[in-house]
Structures are given as C-alpha cells and as structure tokens.
Amino acid sequence: MSAMRGIKVLELSENVSGEYCGKLLSDFGAEVIKLERPGIGSPTRQLGPFSEKGDDNERSGLFAYLNTNKRSVALDVTTAAGSVALQKLLSHVDVVIDDHASGWLKRIGLDPETLDENWPKLVLCSITSFGQSPPEDRLHAEDLTVFQASGLGYHTPSGSPDDMPPLKGAGRFLTSYEAGLDAALCISASLYEREVSQRGRFIDISKQQVLASRLDYVLGQMVAGDMDVSTNRTQFDLFGPAGIFRCRDGFAYIWMSAPSHWDGLRKLLGDPEWMNTFPERWLERECTPERVKLCRQYIAEWLATQEKEKVAAEAQKLGLILVAVNNAEDLKASPQYAFRKFFAEVNHPVLGATLHPTVPYKLSATPALITMSAPLLGQHTSLLGEQP
Amino acid sequence: MTQRMRGGPLEGVRVVELTKVWAGPYVGKLLAFLGAEVIRIESLDSLDVTRTYGVKDINKAPGFQAVNPQKLSVQVDMKKPEGIKLVLDLLSKSDVVVENLRPGAVKRLGLGYDVVKAAKPDIVFVSMGMYGSEGPLSYQTGYAPCFAALGGLSLLVGHEGSAPGAMNIRYADSTFGAAAAFATVTALLHRRRTGEGQFIDVSAVESMTSMIGDTIMDFSLNGVVHECDGNLHAEMAPHGVYRCANNEWLSIAVSSEEAWRSMAKVMGQSDNALFSTHAHRKANEAALNQAVSAWTADRDVHELVELLQQNGVAAAKSQSSVDLVADPHLWSRGFYREVTDKTGQTKNIIGPSWKMSRDAEITNAAPQLGEHNAYVFGELLGLSVEQQKQFADSGVTR
C-alpha cells in the first residue's frame, strides 16, 4: 500500500528541485502529472548523464532518475489554449509543484496571492532560489550561486586555505535536492492537515534558506550572539586530527575527538611507541596544532598501507570511528545497501534496465516504490481528454 | 496549552524525542516548526552532549539552544523501571517517537518498537542510524563527516587533481534529519487516512547518497566514477568562484549562450573566438577561468554582482558568517527571528526554510532541562501533585 495513493499532483516544475520534490511524492504513490512543453519537454531531458542510445529527448539519466512514477502530458501553459487547459486541471488536483522564478505562476494565471479565493483546497508549493520577493541583485541564480550565498559554499571544504576558491559541494544539484526535500516535507504536512480541514495552502520555499537552515547548529549560535562570526573560511570547523587519508585502495576518513577513539587506535595499531609521546586525554585538553600535525603524519603513514573496507571494519569493532570514503562503484557493491535494497532496477523503454538509487527511509507499512519508469515526452497526453 | 495551539499544519500532533546531538533533534525542530508539540525526554545522568559542551550551565548551552527551539523538556531517569513506565505512558498519548540513540540502545532501555507498539498500536516510530537499524554494517557508528564520506559525497568535493577535501564538517546531520522528517509526516498522513501506524528506519549514509542521485546514475548508465573536479560543471561555463578585491569571492554560473554573451560584453571578451560557444568554453576552460579571474581580481564583489545581475547573469557573493548574519534579505523574510526563554529573555534563532499560509507560531526558545515536567506529568499523564512529588523525591523525574 502507498501512503499517498489517490493524491493528485500537478507538476509545473522544469528544474531539478521541483522534479525531485515530485519524485519524493510519486515514489510514495501520489499520481503526479507532469506538464511538459510539446516537442521540447522538460529542460532536464537535455542534461546528463546520457545513455548512448535513444532519441535526444529520451536518453537523459537525470530525467529518468527524477521522474519515476510520473505521467507526462505535453501542454504549453504559456499559450492561450494551454492556459484554459491548466485552469481545468487545477480543479482536479490536490497539489501543484513549481520551481520557476517568482512571478511566473502569476503570469500563467495561478497567482499565489489569490489562491485562497480561487482554489481554496489547493496546496501550491513554489521553490525558488531566494523566495517569492528576491532583491534586485539576486534575480538570477543557479545552484552554485545559491550554495555560495548560503554559507555552505564559503566554508567548503573544511580547513580550506584562504587563497583557494570556495567549492561547489558534491555533484551538480545538491542545492536543488535539499530544497526539493523541504518542499516535499511541507506539502506532506499540508496534506495531513487538509484531510480534516479541506483547506489548501501556499508554500514558499527559498533554496538559500534551506541550505542556511541546514547549518542551524552553528549559524543559530552565531545569530544568537553565542559564537563568533568572522571572515575566516574555517569559522565552522572543528579542529583536531580528523580527516581524509589515502589508503592502498582509495581513501578513508578517521574521526578522533574522545579518549575512547585514542584507545581504539592504540589497540588497532598494537600500542606503537609514538602514541606514548602524546599526553593522556590530549584530544580534549591539549590538542595543539603541533600534536595534530604529528598525529596526522603517523596516521597517514599507517593508513597508506591499509585497505579501506578492511581497516574500517577492524577499527569500528574497537570503538574507533573510521570509515571508507566511497565512490559510486563502492556503493553499488555495499552489502549494507544491498541488504536495505537501496538500489532498485528500473526498466526504461529507451535506457533499458538501470539501477536507480532510491530513498533513505524504509517505511514498514508504506514503503516508497518505483513501479513505473520515467515517462516518454507526452506519453500520457491523452489523459487531458479524460478529465471530466 | 499554547504549545499545542500554535497553528500550522501539524497542530495537534504530539512528538516525543529520544534524541542526541543534531540529526534527531533536527527532526523534532522541523516538526515543531510545522506546529507539532515536541517533547524531549532527557536524563540528567545521560545528557545530550550539546547541553554540556563548552558551558557550565546546562540551561544555557548555545549549541543545544540552536537546534531545540519551540520544544518541551521532561526529565526522566530512564535507568529506572518507573522512568521507563512513565515514558511508555507518555508514548501511549503521543503520535510519533523519534530516536537516534546508539544502535540497539532503545531496545536495551525497554523502548523498542514492539514494546511501544503494544502501548500505542498506531504509533509512528522513527529510528535513525548511520546505516539504518539492521543489516551487516548497522553496528558501525559515526558522525556527520562519516555519513558524507560513506555516502559518496566527500570524494566529489575538492580542487581539481588534489585529494578530496569533503563537504564542510557541519554538513550531513540536518539533511539526514530532513529526510527523516519527511518520512515521518508522510506516515502521519497515512495514519490519518487509514488508522495505521508504522516503523520507519532511516539511514544517514543513504540520505547523503540521495543528494548525488544523478552522479550515481552516471555510474549505473555508463560506468563513470566521478572524482573531485574543483568547480567544474558539465553544462555550465564559466562555473566557478572567483577572487575579487579585499580577498572576497564571487560565484558565477553561466547556463545559457544569452547569459554568456551579456557577460562577455561587460568583460570585453565578446570577440574572443575561444569562448564563443559552450563547447568552446569547455574546451578552453582554463583560459576562460583565467580571463574571468583577471577581470574580477581588483574589482569590488558587490559591484560585480550588481553588474552581472543587471545583465542577466547568475552571480552571488560567497558569503562568510559575517555576511550571513547581516544578510538583510534573510532578516526581512523572517528567517532570523526572535524567541523568548523561560526567564523572559529574548534570543535570535534560525527559523524555517519556508514561509506558508496559516503558518505555525514560533515563539519559544529551547527549554530548560525538565521545564515541562508539571505539564507533561500533571496535565498529560494525569498524575496528582503528590504523585509527581513522589517521583521527584525518588529520583525518577527530579
């Protein structure tokens, strides 16, 4: 059984944030109708990774990933005819998701300001870079610029020297995935209330705020005046010997902050002489830059001779927090991911059978499931005629 | 009670937290911001380290306060059977329980799903672990940077040709929490429609992999394993962060030919054939980035942002913590907002990432330890004043 069966969602999104939000709902069984411009389709169809085979509109692995369980209706809502069809659709759906720039919804005849009056039962969610009323100097944005405006960018990576540029973060679309997640959360909560109240709601998601709110532990202390602010690139950092080290077959990450970690390391290394030159409880009480540097040197020498998975398993059993730094291939081979069935095989008419990453939560009664591959462009346009 | 009637979509929902540090508390915070009544169960003998980290007064710990606004706190000794009984009584009157204790810890406490379900058959029970609650590696534990390393993110972050540098060390817990919160609310929706509760098992590592789904798809489709590549982007060029005057940094992302033509014009690069199309700019990206860097190097970052924005180019200052806390847009949207603690003192907090119609009121700072004992034990559980005193005297509640 699916948690969102019977819930009708109209997706106007043409970017990763709104499409990911729609996917989070459709994988829980919501009926998501995606409107795409005839002939062209969603711009995400033109973004990689691409399969070598297939028509240009149908070979994007990005689109295939983001649009599982959805239906595609070819309709241009910016035309007069499209606008009429849209108005009709709006009376049949429970939720609308959009991720165009603010102002676009009003232009297509779905003004958030008059939502309560015209569509009192509709849950309308708009995901934008800086919210509904962006300042003049924030009108144009991409995931990178939002990431950099949010505080995450300036402080990525940790321990960065001042003369190296701040970085983009992992992958191309982390900003959008994060925003899509908060959008899905707010939509789900609104549906929960709507079951009883029969009332809709307008939800205004700012990507900048999503990323900044993910930093609440530090940024919250800063805005409260409890933690110093500065122009230091390392202002969010925790200092100490923790970090990524090269191994024989890749990289491993080691965390060390407590005596138990030091003790674990001692056991794992067989009580080496160098550890006796450090005072007891130095990690907590006497964690000087010199000691950190020396400790890191010894760890680097040792880990360079180790294999990441094997040493991680040994370390974990001794209470030392050490893990492999995984890549996509490692994840596909992970026994834990296999156990939890994190990868699902999806059969797509053009891409063939492909393993998709799924969702990080297992629900015992209503698991998220992929039952349909992403739609071909306009595959379900005939649905338009079926609306009463 | 004002705690229960703050409006918002989750008004009337009661959540109990058995959580520590950041990821679990972040779930409760999101649910509280959506209107739920969120009660933290705390034990003086097993305090959340964020209550004690760097401070003497457990009621004034800045880290704890940052992640726990608008919540209630009860103090129960969970090492005593009477304490566990009280927790189960509270759970029997609650809708959700969220736990992120060490693997197996809730079972050892006598608060596993089976036990809680017996007390409250339609409970939504949310279990959070680095690798989830079961499986061959579920015994392993770690902190946020471990989640990002295991989930495939750390390897993707770093300068071209150098060892991976990873995401900021503060990244991961809150993303994990947001994924858990979405699953929780969806389970509540299902329960409201069918009466059925359930068990939710959330993996921190998988929550990380979800943030690079398209990168994983490239491996699935084409066998491509990505490595860190600085600020490069397959579909955008320029795509980078460039140094300006005063050691400030400007991010620029050019996603269309139109945007490039505008930018080339203001840079005086319109006639440069090396950069004429996206394919050319990707082929000559080192030269492109050099040209952009030379152009930004001595200029003021704010002037450049304004100029590029006027010309339709996505550009923003890379904001330091000073910039962020002063960001007028974040203040005007109510992202930073003021709350009041038990003593009447006001404090600024980080608000929600959203604005919504019929939003929940957010007025209260994080609770003092056990601040809401009387409300929870008296009003919710119906214990008499005398009974409450007995529990306190015997150390079950304090």
TrEMBL record, chain A:
Keyword set, alphabetical order: Transferase
A GO molecular function held by the record: CoA-transferase activity
InterPro entries the record matches: CoA-transferase_III_domain, CoA-Trfase_fam_III, CoA-Trfase_III_dom3_sf, CoA-Trfase_III_dom_1_sf
Name of the molecule in the record: CoA transferase
Organism: Stenotrophobium rhamnosiphilum
